[in-house]
Amino acid sequence: MIFKGSETFWRNFYRLSSDQKASARKAWVIFKKDPFDPRLRTHKIHRLSAALGQTVFAIELEKDLRVVFYIDRDIVRTVDIGSHDVYKP
């Protein structure tokens, strides 16, 4: 699979604290092997999926830190990273 981050994802990633960035990097190692690894607690975001017309998922990095992504054929596209606010369309 190919992984691509949106501009929004990268902009918000660089705004995270150093501890949050460390959590994201740790999860990235797992994510790139399997976005649905149980340790990531991957789940579908129904409202966002309906708004975008495709299945959108999120992984949990910390208590209130999520990465939102979708899969387009063989490309995993990370949409955003942040608090639960990233679930809003």
Topology (SSEs and partners):
Layout: E1 2-5, H1 7-15, H2 18-33, E2 43-44, H3 46-52, E3 56-62, E4 65-72, E5 75-82
Parallel strand pairs: 1-5
Antiparallel strand pairs: 2-3, 3-4, 4-5
Polypeptide structure, described:
It is built from 3 helices and 5 strands, in the order E-H-H-E-H-E-E-E. It is of the alpha+beta class and 89 residues long. The protein has a single domain (2-87), classed as RelE-like (YaeB-like fold). The protein has a 5-stranded mixed β-sheet with strand order 1-5-4-3-2. The mean pLDDT is 92.
The CATH architecture term is 2-Layer Sandwich
Distance N to C terminus: 26 Å
Number of helices: 3
- Per CATH, the class reads Alpha Beta
Total of domains:
1
Helix content: 25-40%
The radius of gyration computed from the alpha-carbon positions, rounded to a whole number of angstroms, is 12 Å
State mean pLDDT (0 to 100 scale): 92
CATH superfamily: RelE-like
Based on DSSP secondary structure assignment, what is the total number of beta strands? Answer: 5
Element-by-element helix/strand order: EHHEHEEE
Assembly type? single chain
* Structural class by helix and strand composition: alpha+beta
Percentage of β-strand residues: 25-35%
Largest sheet: 5 strands, mixed
Strand order of the largest sheet: 1-5-4-3-2
Low-confidence stretches: none
